[in-house]
User: Fold this.
Amino acid sequence: MIIDSHAHLVAPPSFYGYRANLLASGGYYKGKPGISDDVLAESAAGNVAIMDSVGTDVQLLCPRPFHQMQSAKPDRIVHWWIEANNDLIARTVAMHPTRFAGVAGLPVCAGSPVTDALPELDRAVNDLGFVGVTLNPDPNEGIGHGPGLDDEYWYPLWERMVELNVPALIHSSGCNNGRESYSEHFITEESIAILTLIRGEVLQRFPGLRIIVAHGGGSVPYQIGRWQAEVLAPSLGGDPNNTRFEVLLRQLYFDTVLHYPPSLELLLKLVGPDRVLFGTEKPGSGSATNPDTGRGFDDLKPVIEAMDFLSEDDRSLVFEQNARAVFPRLKIEA
Assistant:
């Protein structure tokens, strides 16, 4: 079975009109998205057709991150919008229960306690049947200074995730600083997330916590020489036990959303196939056609199948078994 652990909701365009109405009303009017079953079914069927075209059996759906607008004020706009995303994902899953599972967005709002997001986490897992969450490490969306993932600010969320036995996909959101695009911001924040988690105490304090870092770990695996050196240097905040950086990296999981085969090969060799989950983000930024292959850059199944250093057991881990271990609430049968 091929499980795509990093995919986003394919919604009809009118859904984003609801987002515009929330912003335009300034939080004074909630309204309803008004997406009929027929309209949603058409979008969902289109996504299933894309999956079939590349041999994907199951996708784990989360909200489109750059639309989450977690820096918007008042906070209730963020809560209403992310709740609507989770509801639409749940309806999509109900239409194709053997093809999709839900990964919840969380209304972590800039400048507000993370505990405000816990009721929606509970609802998504306990009521909607979601199997994980996606977490934006920068709710400020590029403006201001927010707490790193090693900060105690996040501890209530880590604790609840462990209680519910769900993992988090670290995936940044929008960016409003005018200096970098949201896509560039993704890589920046995912890189910072890895380094703060490794240098902090989170993974020791919450041993049951499972974290997947999107887009192959941001820039970190590809700057390994710098981090190998710094982690062994106490003056630079290195590990006091002199544990090698590549060993520390294996406390985390990574996805395959890398659209360049040599980069994906480096990741697999660096952290091992037992720490990498198949993911494509398809349809998404990698869906353009690669002129060298005639396939989408995000058609990654044949790329992994062609890697001769991977055994069949390795490929099974990447394509299916790692996802089942990291998302134990995922119950779709092969």
